[in-house]
Each structure stands twice: as structure tokens, then as C-alpha cells.
Amino acid sequence: GPARELKLEVARSEPVARDQADGLFAAPALLSAAFSEEVIDQGHNSEVIELGEDKFVVLRAHKHNSPQVRALAEVREEIVTILRDQAARALAVAEAERLVGELAAGATVEQLAGSGGYEWRAEPGASRRNTTLPGEVVGLAFEMPAPAQGQILADFVLTPAGDVQVITLERVN
């Protein structure tokens, strides 16, 4: 009714999952509103949600599909992919821990990168506003304590993409 009166566009989305991370429902405010008690249980429209740039959304649940157990055959490939990703990340973390240990024992980045075939680069004078490094790397570098004179600190971070980045910190200005 109100949309018609105001001559606004009404659109129906495809089904939305609680863990949706793409499209319009990637906006946390929309996802939260979509699964709120007011919208799901009471059947009301949501409050007006501002998305920025003069975009506003009000949503209503047309249909709510209760969670269901899916057949193993239907989810087998998803499970295999998740398990492979977890195993690969665990191996990457174990290798990063090994490298950090060797760096702490006196090995150099050049030695370890050369023997392991790893890509490495120096980032002298990195600042908090550095845009050439992943944000997780910059964040960790600025969380590390300042090393003592002549000391090199090493640590690692796992990025959301599943990559492991080993970091060495030589000095802080």
C-alpha cells in the first residue's frame, strides 16, 4: 500500500540465507532486519533502512522457509570443499609457524624464501596508511611490539582469502 501511494518500486528477491554475503543482503542492516522477529514472526514490514547515497529500503518477508536438513548427496561437494580448505589452511599455518620459529632461531628471510620457493618483499618505511600490503599484514605489523636494537621479530597472519603472510619487523621509528 504505502509503496503504491508513494509510487515507489517494489521488488522481490530470490531466497535469502542468514549467512548471505553478496548482493543487496550483504548489507548487515538488511540481513538483520530480514530475520528479525518483527519481520519473520509477526509479518510486519521492517523499519526504513538507509543504505546511503539516498537509497532506502523497507522489507517484508513474503515467505519464510524453515531450516531443513539437506541430504548428504546434495551437500557432499560443499562439505568436501570446506574440509579441503580447512586442511590447506591448517598446513599453511603449520608452515608459517615453522618459518617464524626458524626466523626466531636466526635464519634470514632470504634463506627461507629461497629454500622454500616463497615470494617475499621488503616494505621499508611502511605506514598505517599503506595500501600496497593486505590490511591484515599492516594491522599485525602495527600491533607487534617494537624490537630491541638488532632484534628481528617475526609473526604471521591468515588472510580471509586463506593466504598466510609471514611478517618480520626489524625496527620502528
What can you tell me about this protein's structure?
The chain has six helices and four strands. The radius of gyration is 24 Å and the shape is elongated. The model has no long low-confidence stretch (mean pLDDT 88). It is an alpha+beta fold. Strand 3 and strand 4 form a beta hairpin. The strands form two sheets. It has a two-stranded antiparallel sheet. A two-stranded antiparallel ribbon has the order 3-4.
Binned strand content: 5-15%
- The backbone outline, from C-alpha atoms, is elongated
End-to-end distance: 62 Å
What is the string of SSEs from the N terminus onward? HHHEEHHHEE
- Using only C-alpha atoms, the radius of gyration works out to 24 Å
* Share in helix: 25-40%
User: Mean of residue pLDDT?
Assistant: 88
Summarize the main sheet. Answer: 2 strands, antiparallel
Helix count equals 6
Beta strand count: 4
Residue runs with pLDDT of under 50 for 5 or more positions? none
- Can you list the strand order of the major beta sheet? 1-2
- Label the structural class: alpha+beta
